[in-house]
Amino acid sequence: MLDMCGGITIIHSPGHTYGHICLLITTEKILIAGDALNIEEGRLIGANPMHTFDVETAKKSVQKLGNFDINKIVCYHSGLFEGNAKTAIAEAAGIM
Questions:
Q1: How many CB atoms lie within 10 A of CB 92?
Q2: Mean pLDDT of the chain
Q3: Nearest-angstrom CA–CA distance, 3 and 51
Q4: How far apart are CA 61 and CA 52, in angstroms?
């Protein structure tokens, strides 16, 4: 936990890379997903398998993200996802 912006939770989310992390701005319920998640045609998807060192670990990391209270998701390559984050994350875990 980082003591800034009302609290930022660091979430270890390996798969795309060994040390990948996501950041959750707790008070705003905004997840900065980095490359763990992407948006394609308005749908949330997991990391690009071509650029992921361990796809199975990446899937588990995406599943773990579903345990957090999230309203918005910032994806590094594809922008901002707004909608039912919990459902979209669960679907993304199965899509990768």
A1: 28
A2: 93
A3: 32
A4: 12
Confidence of residue 95 (pLDDT cuts 50, 70, 90): low
The DSSP call for residue 47 is -
Residue range 15-43, pLDDT digits in tens: 999 999 999 999 999 999 999 999 999 99
Q: Tell me the residue type at 71.
A: N
For residue 77, what pLDDT is reported? 86
Amino acid of residue 86? K
Tokens for 11, please give them.
Answer: 């979430």
- What 3-state class would DSSP assign to 57? helix
How far apart CA 63 and CA 90 sit, in angstroms, is 6
Three-class DSSP category at 95: helix
CA distances from 33 to 7, 17, 89 (A): 16, 13, 11
Go through the domains of the chain in sequence order and give each one's CATH number. 8-95 (3.60.15.10)
Kind of pairing between the strands at 37-40 and 43-46: antiparallel
